[in-house]
Amino acid sequence: MSINLYQKRAHLEPILNNVFQDAEGHTVYDCHTPHTISPHRTTTISKSLSNEGREGFEYVAQIDWRTIRSSKIRFANGRLGGQEVEINKYLRKDGWSLMSGTGRNYTFTCEDGEDYTWRNGTLHLRMFRRDDLDNPVAVYTRETFTKGGHLEVFPSAQHLMDEIIVTFIYAEQKNVETTTTTVLASS
Q1: Going by C-beta distance under 8 Å and a sequence separation of 6 or more, which residues neighbour residue 26?
Q2: In the structure, how many helices (H) and strands (E) does the chain have?
Q3: Is 128 a residue whose pLDDT tops 70?
Q4: Can you give the pTM of this predicted structure?
């Protein structure tokens, strides 16, 4: 059975400052980016401990957004746990999306040793195993005027939830930035 995570809030920065809830409205992940006048911001991603019968949140990862140098990512656990890694060494740019003409695709090696790719489309951001580009393992449906965005993770990838949510946040934010830049440039 798929896991669906729904964005609680729709606003100008729906990815960087949001809560991702399950179908019952329970918070599963929290994504927080303090507002600052500096272009250098840090996004913190945490997950709820309620599914483990505990209260509170556990730190999952941070993304340090940079404009001139490469952004950096820090995971709390796993093979990259405690390390600061440059994004361009972890999430490799993999061409432009032919489906949307705007955002990039990103490829990375997950905790399970497999390569995965986020492919950008007009209404969706889809994650595939690199060796099976016909069957998505996760799909983000972007928000519309009538529905908020949601991320669906299929059973074959649920063991990678933390990496999926962190890489999704990065890939979707970069898509938002690219789309905004494209719209402003064409004005």
Answers
A1: 48, 50
A2: 2, 13
A3: yes
A4: 0.87
